[in-house]
Amino acid sequence: MTSQGTLGTSQGTLDGKVALVTGASRGIGAATALRLAREGADVAVGYVNGKEAAEEVVRAVEALGRRAVAVRADAADADEAAGAVTAAAEALGGIDVLVNNAGVGVLGPLETLSLADVDRVLAVNVRGVFLTSQTAAARMPEGGRIITIGSCMAQRVPGPGGTLYATSKAALAGMTKALARELGGRGITANLVHPGPIDTDMNPADGPYAAGQAAMTALGRFGTADEVASMVAYLATASYVTGAEFAVDGGHTA
């Protein structure tokens, strides 16, 4: 890793590094995979259902002159979550950067949430992140990077219906701080990025609930997946930033 990173990272700052981005077939994950490739990294593109979309991201990474591989894994499955790291490392020759982006959201009134909802959300958003981080840390060399995608709802829940999702994302703060302490002696950093309303196919900026979400931000607009990816790229190179949370939310939590 470079000794110091900036938000305006230039091409080549991740030359010779290997990154795994989970949930990278679309949205924030896809944008992050491409941004890391532009910085010089070879990228494993994690996915669970969107095989064709993941392969498109692979081709886009390869078009940038970097190596890439699509890795299928359901983060809700303990073996597959950990296995994604192993598959990526074996295909690309190691792992230096892990981006925990895969996640699911189940929103709704508290009384409507089933045990199956609870189990799946916690399995993907918490247990899956723990297992990928644990497996990656065991393989990472000195100076590795673990970057997890949280949510602005871990810091501010603007209305009812988000109890389960916010619970799962808030758990990542404790995990990130503990990882930073546990792995700091090896120069491995762990950080958490909290996106706000981001324009993706899952939550489009012209969707039926978009106006209300945009109004909750200080900037009055949705963010882009590239804006989140820019923060991830910074953290992939920064060497003296760890155990920290970064809001990329347009002032949602201001």
TrEMBL record:
Q: Which domain of life is it from?
A: Bacteria
Single GO MF annotation:
3-oxoacyl-[acyl-carrier-protein] reductase (NADPH) activity
Keyword match Amino-acid biosynthesis: no
Q: What is its EC number?
A: 1.1.1.100
Ketoreductase domain: from which residue to which, for each copy?
A: 17-201
Q: Does the keyword Oxidoreductase apply?
A: yes
| InterPro entries reported in the protein's UniProt record | KR_dom, NAD(P)-bd_dom_sf, SDR_fam
UniProt keywords (A-Z) are: Oxidoreductase
Return the similarity comment.
Answer: Belongs to the short-chain dehydrogenases/reductases (SDR) family.
| Name by which UniProt lists this protein | 3-oxoacyl-[acyl-carrier protein] reductase
Q: Which organism is it from?
A: Streptomyces africanus
